[in-house]
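Could you help me review a protein record that somebody else here produced? Here is the record exactly as it was handed to me:
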Amino acid sequence: LPNAYQLRNQIWSRFILNETERATYDFSNLSLMSLEHASTLAEIKSSRRNLELFIANKFEVQKTLWQHATLPFLNAKSIFTTNYDNLIEKGFNTVNHGRQLTPIYNNSTSINQNFIPLYKPHGSIDHPHSTVKEGGFVITQFDYYEIMDVREKMLKTFIEGFKNKCVIFIGYSLLDFDI
């Protein structure tokens, strides 16, 4: 799966560059460009739907990794990921022992004791064409503005559960200033 810089470069190559430029383009030219800025330009040049399909295809996985299958054994109160993929869901479901994951994309989902909340503030490939408030991709700079108030409430709910609990962050970088 691509990291943020690789995804930025792949989006730039697919949506901004023409076929001739793709072969020789020096991606170090994008050193100051963020993923959300490149995505915004790609959406403007092509379409939101094309960008969503491209991203969904990049993060489609058939099998999970063994590390994701061990998640139920950690007995986490909640799980948090900024990744679009569904590796966590697939891994968790391979060894499910009584509790299920509930993906949380906004603060309107009620949390049941039998479910472990899986906070996905950047959305999921399971909802590529949904709005960002309903699990669609948070990828462009405009998406970040749109989701800001919803994400703040979601993060407050998530953080309230930290005390004396096992909490897992997957795919999160301390360089993610949006979180």
